[in-house]
């Protein structure tokens, strides 16, 4: 099941209920994604696995960061897409890590797992794979990504 929730016009209480609903869904669908670094050749995932591709873009002048997410199945069919834009001044690594976090969350809420995450941000992927403790702004995001991949039980 794929769904998209629009938060425009929803009260604060409604947003809190929606947030708690998404937390329950995510906690019940945790996955251990495989992380790969893109080599400029798109390869579909093996049957039974979904592939998350994404890109982050930064507009420093307007203080905007955008994320495009797409999830494919093994037959190259698009299962879900999302475009998000936030007001922020992120470094490229923070933008890529945030896109990974948003993508994994989006996949889990949409019920699209197990998941393979393909990224061209080799440094960020290596931090995630090594469960590296970063003591900077990216550290919180890396920790959140890692927590999405752990079984809470």
Highlighted features:
153 residues, 4 helices, globular, disordered N terminus
Given the C-alpha coordinates, what overall shape results?
globular
Spatial arrangement of strands, main beta sheet: 1-5-2-3-4
Largest sheet: 5 strands, mixed
State the order of secondary-structure elements, H for helix, E for strand: HEEEEHEHH
User: Mean pLDDT, rounded to whole units?
Assistant: 78
Could you tell me how far the N terminus lies from the C terminus, measured between alpha carbons in angstroms?
25 Å
Total count of helical runs of at least 4 residues: 4
Tell me the CATH topology: Nucleotidyltransferase, domain 5
State the CATH class: Alpha Beta
Q: List low-confidence stretches.
A: 1-10
> What share of residues are in beta strands?
15-25%
Q: What is the CATH homologous superfamily assignment?
A: Ribonuclease H-like superfamily/Ribonuclease H
By CATH, the architecture is named 2-Layer Sandwich
User: Structural class, from helix and strand content?
Assistant: alpha/beta
Overall number of structural domains: 1
The helix fraction, in percent, is: 25-40%
Compute the number of strand runs.
5
Gyration radius (Cα, Å) is 15 Å
GO molecular function: nucleic acid binding; RNA-DNA hybrid ribonuclease activity
InterPro entries: RNase_H-like_EbsB-rel (IPR052929), RNaseH-like_sf (IPR012337), RNaseH_domain (IPR002156), RNaseH_sf (IPR036397)
Protein name: RNase H type-1 domain-containing protein
Domain RNase H type-1: 53-150
């Amino acid at each position: 099941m794929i769904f998209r929730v629009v938060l425009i016009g929803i009260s604060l209480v409604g947003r809190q209920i929606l947030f708690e609903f998404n937390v329950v869904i995510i906690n019940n669908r945790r996955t251990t994604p495989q992380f790969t670094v893109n080599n400029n050749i798109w390869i579909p995932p093996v049957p039974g696995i979904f592939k998350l591709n994404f890109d982050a873009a930064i507009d420093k002048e307007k203080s905007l960061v955008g994320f495009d997410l797409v999830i494919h199945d093994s037959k190259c069919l698009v299962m879900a897409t999302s475009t998000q834009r936030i007001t922020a001044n992120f470094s490229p690594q923070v933008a890529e890590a945030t896109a990974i976090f948003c993508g994994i969350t989006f996949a889990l809420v949409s019920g699209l797992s197990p998941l393979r995450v393909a990224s061209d941000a080799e440094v960020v992927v290596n931090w995630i794979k090594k469960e590296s403790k970063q003591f900077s702004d990216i550290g919180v995001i890396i920790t959140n990504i890692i927590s999405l991949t752990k079984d809470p039980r």
